[in-house]
Structures are given as C-alpha cells and as structure tokens.
Write a structure and sequence with these properties.
It contains ten helices and seven strands. With 277 residues, it is an alpha/beta fold. The protein has a single domain, classed as Glycerol-3-phosphate (1)-acyltransferase. It has a seven-stranded mixed β-sheet with strand order 1-7-6-2-5-3-4, with helices on both faces. Helix 5 (145-151) links the parallel strand 3 (131-136) and strand 4 (155-157). Helix 2 (40-55) crosses helix 3 (72-88), helix 3 packs across helix 4 and helix 3 (72-88) crosses helix 5. The radius of gyration is 19 Å and the shape is globular.
C-alpha cells in the first residue's frame, strides 16, 4: 500500500480521536428518540465519514486473504456506517446488561439471529470491544462492506464442508488467544424469517473452550421490525446481555452443556418478553 495512503489513514485516525475526546457533553436523549446528531463534532464526523467512504475505494481488496490483525481505519468505517444505518432507519436501542461484559479480556458472544441487521447493530453497540463475526462466506462479496469486514478479521465459514468449518473455528480461537478481537457467533447458523429460534450448534462453542475465554450470552428482539416499520414508524430494538460464563466455567463444562444452557437462557428470556407484550 502506498506511503501516502498510510499517512492519510494515520492522520485521519488522530483527527477522529481529537474530535471524540474534545466533544462537548451531550444532553441525554429523551426516551423513545432515535440516535441523532447534536453537536458540531457530530456533523464534522459525518462529513469525515462520507469522505472516508470515498477514500475507501483505494483500499486493496484481496478476496482470498484472511487477516490476523485488524485494520483500525476499516474498523472506524465499520462502526460509523452502522451508526448511520441506525440514524437513517430511526432505530431506538434499549440495551441492558452491558456491565456484565468482561472489560479486560476478549470473549465469545453468542446470540439469537433474527435479521440481516443483527451483526451490524451488535458491532456498533459493542464497538469498544472490537467485535468480529463468523459469517457466511457470501457476505465478503457485498460491495464496500465485504472488504471492510475482511480487514476487520471477520471469518467466512463454509456450512457445507465440516473440515473447512473446523478450520474457521480454529482461526477464530487463535484471534481470541492473541487478544486481537472478540468473536461473535450465531449458533443457529442462519436466521429464521418467522423469528422462531432454531437449534444451536455446539461446535461454535469450541471457540471459547479452545481459547479459554468467557462466553457472553445475549438476546436480541424487535430488530425484525426495522425493515417492516421503515420509513413511517420507529423500531425499538432490545439487546439484553443475559449472562457471562467465566473462563473457568467454560473450561470445566462440556461444550454441549454450554450450548444447551445458552439456548435455554435466550429462548426463555424471549418467550417471557413476548408474553409480556
């Protein structure tokens, strides 16, 4: 990559850090209101984001390479684009349980899968944890997003080839061992249009057992309404961190049992929440 591009990237990152660190204190957003820009810094960040989108066309795109270190510039673009999607779609977030998330160690995040927006909103909410997902390999062909997620250490999985799937699991465990990123997975393997939870696959829990890291269990609801309600009605997305299995528990309990426990916790929480509505 040319030195001029590296210099631009470095300057851009430091400018963004300055804008964030010197941003005036925001007023608390009123209940029921979506994310919205409220400061000069916000507007400048949006302009810089649009400019950086244009500059991103010069980022090399290797369709076969898997990266062992994430690109901070691409990570910024990934988080910023997710925030713009949330603003544009008028999404209101209700997040609970973030105080349970480990702050000093990477982790494996497991969650139910309801919408194509699941990973986008999740990596935005967990942005300080540098969350990367195991995803279907077709997602790397998405224009613009494909090369960003590849450079942010996202891993493609071949759901039709067990040997290649195990190789992906081992690569994810290696990223966790080195503390490069935290890993997000959807144990159902795919989303269900009726929003009913499918069975969890225990294999993905091997990532945590091999890496000896905690498992964060989260439930997501309401996200399926974003597309249904747009543009006339605001959607309320609930993201609830239910539990954290410590590294010691992960090492002591068979992954099949961990899988069953996580499934039962998420399903019970969602069923209770839907009955209350």
């Amino acid at each position: 990559m040319p030195d001029t591009y590296v210099s631009f990237k470095t300057l851009f990152i430091y400018n963004m850090r300055y804008a964030i660190n010197h941003e005036p204190q925001r007023k608390e957003v009123r209940s029921g209101r979506p994310l919205k820009t409220r400061t000069v810094s916000d507007r400048m960040n949006r302009i810089m984001f649009l400019l950086s989108m244009i500059s991103s066309i010069f980022i090399s795109r290797d369709k076969t390479r898997e990266y062992k270190h994430q690109n901070r510039y691409c990570r910024f673009l990934l988080n910023s684009s997710a925030r713009e999607v949330a603003i544009f779609s008028r999404t209101k977030f209700h997040v609970t349980g973030m105080e349970k998330v480990p702050k000093d160690t990477p982790f494996l995040l497991v969650c139910n899968h309801r919408s194509k927006l699941d990973p986008i909103y999740t990596w935005m909410i967990f942005k300080k944890y540098k969350l990367s997902f195991i995803t279907k390999k077709e997602n790397f062909s998405i224009p613009w997003y494909g090369k960003l997620i590849r450079k942010c250490c996202f891993l493609g999985i071949d759901r039709q080839d067990p040997r290649k799937a195990i190789s992906t699991i081992e690569k994810a465990a290696d990223l966790l061992k080195r503390g490069e990123v935290s890993i997000g997975v959807y144990p159902e393997g795919t989303r269900h249009l009726d929003c009913k939870m499918g069975e969890f696959h225990a294999l993905v829990f091997r990532i945590a057992t091999d890496a000896k890291v905690p498992i964060v269990v989260m439930a997501i609801t309401g996200i399926e309404n974003v597309a249904k309600n747009f543009p006339w009605k605001r959607a309320h997305v609930h993201m609830d961190v239910l539990d954290v299995y410590t590294a010691d528990e992960v090492a002591a309990v068979p992954r099949v049992k961990l899988c069953e426990k996580a499934y039962n916790q998420i399903k019970s929480f969602i069923d209770t929440k839907e009955m209350e509505r």
